[in-house]
Amino acid sequence: MSSQPVLLVASSGGHLTQLCSLRPWWRDRERVWVTFRTPDAESALRHERVRWAHHPTTRHLGNLVRNTWLAVRVLRERRPSAVVTTGAGVALPFFVLAWLLRIPTVYIEVYDRIDAPTLTARLCRPFTRLFLAQWEEQRAFMPTAITVGPLL
Questions:
Q1: Average pLDDT, rounded, for the chain
Q2: Average confidence (pLDDT) over 8-35
Q3: Can you give the pLDDT at residue 1?
Q4: Of 38, 91, 117, 149, which residue is the least packed, with the fewest Cβ within 10 Å?
Q5: Which tops the pLDDT comparison, 57 or 135?
Q6: Which CATH superfamily is domain 6-147 in?
């Protein structure tokens, strides 16, 4: 295994479920997860290395600051080879700081947004090296994205 882990960042619930579905890709890689401490996340990640983020993130300036400090600590301690996310708001500070540190970032747009990008996709766009779409229709608002197909 590499000494540099992949950092997998997602809100709990459906965002986390979509990242978990990539298990064939990440199972043989060193990895660290960042998500919210909720019962579903604790269950899904019970055997994983996890750093618990602060929620809610939507319109909560205090938690944005807390998650930014968490991102500083995690990125400094682990220096990941890449940061991968399906969103939502918790991803933004990790993407901004990874971009500043020249750590590659991968944004996977969620499967249930076909007509318009999510707010997180719009906010993370300037800091994203690679956009992945789950539906070809998503390329209408993410023309440079690579369509990988549905994760679920």
A1: 94
A2: 96
A3: 44
A4: 149
A5: 135
A6: Glycogen Phosphorylase B; (3.40.50.2000)
β-partners of residue 147 are 133
Let me know how many helices (H) and strands (E) the chain has, helices first.
Answer: 6, 7
* Domain residue limits, the chain: 6-147
Long-range contacts of 27-33 (CB under 8 A, 24+ apart): 28/1, 29/1, 29/2, 29/5, 30/1, 30/2, 30/3, 30/4, 30/5, 30/6, 31/5, 31/6, 31/7, 32/5, 32/6, 32/7, 32/8, 32/74, 32/78, 32/80, 33/7, 33/8, 33/9
Whole-Å CA distances, 10 to 68, 84, 95, 140, 143: 14, 8, 12, 24, 23
Question: Which strand ranges, in their side-by-side order, compose the sheet holding 31-36?
Answer: 50-53, 31-36, 6-10, 82-87, 105-108, 130-133, 146-147
Does 54 have pLDDT greater than 90?
yes
